[in-house]
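step: validate -> pass
step: tokenize input -> pass
step: predict -> running
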Amino acid sequence: MVDRRILAAALAVGLAMGFHGVAHQEWGGDTERYIAVADNLLFNRCISIDDPIAATCTPHWGGNQFPGYSAVIALVGAMIGRVPGDGNAALQIAAIITQTSLLALVLVRVGSVVERTVQSPRWAAIAVLMLGFNPITFAWSRFILTETLAVATTIWLLAELAESARIRCLRAVPLGLALAAAMFVRLDAVTLAPAVAVTAFMVHPPADAIRRGLLVAVIASLPLGAWTARNLAVGLSALPKSDYNVGLGKPQGLLDWLTTWTYRQYDGATVIDAIANRRFDRVRFPNHAYRDAGEREQVATLLARLNAHRGTEFPDDIDAEFSKLAEARRAADPVEYWLILPLRRVATLWLLPTWSGGYPIEFHNPERERLRLEGWRDLVALLADHPLPTVWRGALFGLRLALVVSTLFLLWRWPYQVPVARVMLASTAAYAVVRSIFLAELGFDEPRLMIEAYAALWLATLMACLLRSRAVPT
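step: predict -> pass
step: emit ->
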């Protein structure tokens, strides 16, 4: 039986996040796609990004991710009686309430694990409140995006790791289910696998660790493998490919070239937005995009040709030229591409001081373009124009930095006489490092993609501090 204080804490978090989300509703870049997939699933019983009213049902992976989040939205649509042609207002409110409720349910499980670990329901309830009201992750409930469920599945998996450390046995079934759920919500949740591996080897001898770890992998791979087989059967690749807009041609050459120089938050976002809307006249690049004057001249020529195709799909011949530029740039400086740029992206992912954290204080498109093209030289003036949001951004940055430093300190100094804390910190650190490298090498520079890691660090440091302060010998 779950202690009522834990239930009350989880309920308080769910209500607060729900009220915040409904009061400050927001769409993200992928929201329309998630809803399109959900409506096709609900109305046409197919996974497609086509117009649900047309019911053409061209097979798709399920959006830019596997269809886990869209399946939740489809279920919400069924619960509220959604029919073809309905607007999205009611669906958006219901989806926000549902995703925050699911997170609250996960917090109940987390609280139960913390209670058994620290042997105090009162402190477990406090931990639930601190985890739920974490300012770094709290605001994302207002978006119809994967973030809230991604945080929920991440901390669910970490709670099962903590329980595994407590009982000295890797809990293969719940861990496999949690990992599969996390990957159906966001494919980059594969970066949680190292956390499972670290825990396995810390609580078992090597042979047992491998055996239990393989069992987790088998359980997680069953639903993922089935969906991958479906993708291949309908003529798709095994994993989703992002094309950024329904019906948009895929300028993979240009996207490939972007990965040879982007490392700031808005480096690629505004370019992709212009491409997605076929406003090729708005495609501009900052000075650091070019390796030399020759490349600048080549790109200027390509952009001049591209402007003539405004309103149409991205021309294949121009895309092929950008692909050649990308290949030449990688060949000319492989160290820059494979090492220096990823390190810069890691710094952006973790240490960007201007990140809004999902709160309604984000920079709008003109301000983003100003930051992107001016190389942050105008940052002080821009921040001075918005003093209160600037203070909040600074507070968020300080909190994120303190969390990272605290985790490193705890790893170095405190918890080695407390096995559960040791396992939690080591597995979470492994997850954070692998996720950082994974995203950076793929060319991502958006701090939003690290909120799952922040939630993981928050949970690990909370448990380590509670165990240390209460001197629980588990």
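step: describe -> Confidence is low (pLDDT under 50) at residues 244-249.
step: cleanup -> pass
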